[in-house]
Amino acid sequence: MIPQSFIQDLLNRVDIVDVVGKYVQLKKGGANFMGLCPFHNEKSPSFTVSPTKQFYHCFGCGAHGTAISFLIEYSGLGFVEAVKDLAQGVGMTVPDNDDRIPPAQRAEQQAKTMALSDAMSAACDFYRQQLRAAPNAVEYLKGRGLTGEIAARFGLGYSPDEWDSLRKVFPDYEVPALVEAGLVIDKSDEEGGQRMGRKRYDRFRHRVMFPIRNTKGQVIGFGGRVMDGGEPKYLNSPETPLFQKGSELYGLFEARQAIREAGYVLVTEGYMDVVALAQLGFPQAVATLGTACTPIHVQKLLRQTDEVVFSFDGDSAGRRAARRALDACLIHASDNKIIKFLFLPKEHDPDSYVREKGAEAFEQQIKEAMPLSQFLIKEVVGDNDMTTPEGRARAQFDAKPMLQALPPSSLRLQIVRSLAQVTQTTPAEIEALFELSNPVVQAVARRAPPPRSKRMAPVGLERQIVRLLVAHPALSSDLDDDTLVVVGHHAPDHAQMVTQLVEACRSMGEQANFATLVELLRDGGADFESLIAEIAAETEAESEFDVVRQEMAGAVRQMKMRQVEDEMTQLSIAGLRDEAAQSRYRELMQRKEHLKRLTGADFG
Predict the structure, then answer these.
(1) Cα–Cα dist 496/500, whole Å
(2) Which contacts (CB < 8 Å, 24+ apart) does range 444-451 have?
(3) Domain locations along the chain
(4) What residue ranges carry the coiled-coil annotation (predicted)?
(5) Angle, vertex CA 253, rays to CA 281 and CA 155, nearest 5
(6) Domain 4-89 is found in CATH 3.90.580.10
(7) What is the mean pLDDT of residues 388-392?
(8) Which architecture does CATH list for 252-368?
(9) What is the pLDDT of residues 416-433, one digit of tens each?
(10) Each residue of 554-599: pLDDT tens digit?
């Protein structure tokens, strides 16, 4: 777990304008910066970035957050990945309580990773330059219907038909980084190198090169395709410290914006499918990298969109690939996500289908793709004879591990009902047989927020105090415990919320600010989320801190005044019949006069 103190220090060092500005063209507009929102399609800028709040907000779609939130939403990174990415940019190292690597060794690893990344970037530039001087490769790409514009967008290149062309880029051809990055093969890796009398030689030769980028746009690997029918048709980078096939998707970096605009991502089987589909009007396509789809792939995709469509050839290989994808999807299937499977005719891949049938026909195929629930039932039924007990029992046998992999949800309940229908049993019998607890009850128990006792959002003075604290956490140092008691007395439904907020603000010390508080309250609940969204949307000029402090003092003073007046009213109604009541009334009168005389800088 990353310490909150580190998050605070990181956000104090990072400038959100610089972070967002790498991905969005921003222009100064008053106190803030404006640009086109990267999270929805718009023609007029409604996306603002506040350097004062260190926060972004879109008035069109409501997206908002800190620099960390932006990387999570825009790049599809996890929280820890986003923090590490920002930390690297400002020269910080994320602490890890479970990490026992000595600092010197960590520094050495980081230097090695940087060397590998630099090598991949230099090789990519070299291959792109070589494509311009390779008419056979250019003609091949043109023959596949690709334009120079689309080739440039994906950074396509060409590896010359030479054993060591990379010497032109790396004069020190013997450096370990070239082997570790998978760019060259050392004689110890393959006996063929020894037979040829060569110590080293380029891994990729005479191939069209497809650079593979991570979600930050860094080149981490390559796929090389032959042009003359040689074997293997595709040659991929080996696993390296930068590149793990089970975690990366080709084209995801290039497709992110298109995925948001289309509302879904299309997963295909190869590099050329992705590039060709982008050429033909489907830039929301990605591909796995010569390996089966994994749960990590699915998780990455569902961070980008709520709908994933897998496109496979209709042959037996495509069916096997679809089944592996289904297995990878099960643990991530939920009620608010849509996962579909598209099977094209055996004679077609996505590229050929669009060219022959047209974009509209392919779009229709995507809309009519088979939902996960239907594909699952279809798979377990298979060739089993459902008219016999044995056939139905086998279908249930095949379905058991799949249903157990699904998280408890309404979707799982629907699949259980479908399976029960085709196997002539009841949902209760399926749940008992498969040892499934009630999915609906579990889902509700897991997701339901704590009872709110009809609690309403803060209003009036308490809302003003909460709002000021969220916007200016440093004000918490001005609130003493007596003031919190008054707030609790005046607004008992919100006393816990105010106390939690003050404690969070105080924990950040003198460097407390809005962005840091937002991250601290990331899981604070709907009340805080609505306040944060409201404050993020405020566009008025920032007030001087002393002015804000006086506003807080005024709100607290009014609340204390109201408490005094309420107690005086209660005493009056009771009749002031004894000396104790009369004495308390006089004391309250003095307290009221004292509060009236207080200045804005004094909480009394």
Answers:
(1) 6
(2) 446/408, 449/525, 449/526
(3) 4-89, 103-236, 252-368, 384-447, 460-597
(4) none
(5) 75
(6) yes
(7) 96
(8) 3-Layer(aba) Sandwich (3.40)
(9) 999 999 999 999 999 999
(10) 777 777 777 787 778 887 777 777 888 888 888 888 888 887 776 5
Q: Which two tokens stand for residue 516?
A: 């840091």
Rounded to whole angstroms, the Cα distance separating 226 from 209 reads 9
Topology classification of domain 103-236: DNA primase DNAg catalytic core, N-terminal domain (3.90.980)
Asked if residues 576 and 585 have their Cβ atoms less than 8 Å apart, the reply is yes
Contacts of 42 (CB under 8 A, 6+ apart): 36, 60
Closest CA to 494 of 471, 542, 528: 528
Residue in the block written with tokens 């004094």? 602
Q: Mutual orientation of helices 410-422 and 372-381 as an angle, nearest 10°?
A: 30
Strands (E), 214-274: 219-225, 234-236, 265-268
List, in sequence order, every beta strand (DSSP E) within 195-240: 200-202, 207-213, 219-225, 234-236
DSSP 321-356: HHHHHHHHHGGG--TT-EEEEEE--TT--HHHHHHH
Whole-angstrom Cα distance, residue 320 to residue 325? 9
* Integer-rounded Cα radius of gyration of the chain: 31
Residue 280 token pair: 């033909």
At 270, list the tokens. Answer: 């190869």
Distance CA 411, CA 440 (A): 9
What number does CATH give the domain 460-597?
1.10.860
Q: Kindly report the pTM of this predicted structure.
A: 0.67
